Amino acid sequence: MSDISGTNGDARINGNSATIFVATSPSGAYAGNSSWNIRPYGRKGDEIAMGKVRSGNHFHSFTDVLIPLFLTSREFNGEVQFLVSDFRPSWTSKYRKVLEKLSRYETIDIDKQEGVHCFPNMIVGLKHHKEFNIDPAMSRYSMKDFRQFLRGAYSLQRETAIKLRNREEEKPRLLMITRRRTRASMNEAEIANMAQSLGYNVILAEPDGDLSRFAHLVNSCDVMMGVQGAGLTNMVFLHESAVLIQVVPFGGWSGSQELTLESLQRI
Q1: For residue range 39-95, what is the model confidence (pLDDT) as tens digits?
Q2: Domain range holding 185?
Q3: I want to staple 258 with a disulfide (CB 3.0 to 4.6 A). Which of 35, 186, 200, 222 is the partner?
Q4: An example Gene Ontology cellular component term from the record (predicted)?
């Protein structure tokens, strides 16, 4: 769990110096002049995550930023403004719908601010429970709440799977997450053909920069299948009764892995 710092009362941040000034009562716990440093990262206690995580990784965007940001700011119902250090326009553009659902205000690139910003309250840091998860015992929210929040952010319409008994003419949709570099399935066409023979409408797709489009694609499917990796993070967009099939290759992670028909049938 990560530690964060919150202030109630007059708080001022001096732009690109990343210095926050807080007025305190002369008789309060922090009477007099004092200072301390805070690392405002959700997983700052995880040295591996802090040292090796790539900013463009979809899984870590959710685990390290989006879920902690939801935990920290959702209770304010949009009446919160984000001050971001190490601002990356490509990242904020990709997850714009999430940020706009959490805040009614423009995100500030604090590293480029030369003036002073004043706020009645301020939270420094992000709440974090565990990788890609929310512990309901530690929060008023759960992963179900987070997924419901995403449904609203991306206007996802589908809530449940199709009922085959009532709509026999419609086939369930199976989305195969494809990979082109590592952990690639060498017989995707064969797998897709077998799934079609079992009655599925099969879609092969690889996640790209258009997250909104891909979220709608995932939400339209009844089953999502793929080799373990960041692409399966998109499971958060599945509807409530969907099925996820995660394929864990034998023999480690080096090189391409073949997903055989026999292993698919066992799953």
Answers
A1: 777 777 777 767 766 657 888 899 999 999 999 999 999 999 999 988 999 999 999
A2: 173-266
A3: 186
A4: Golgi membrane
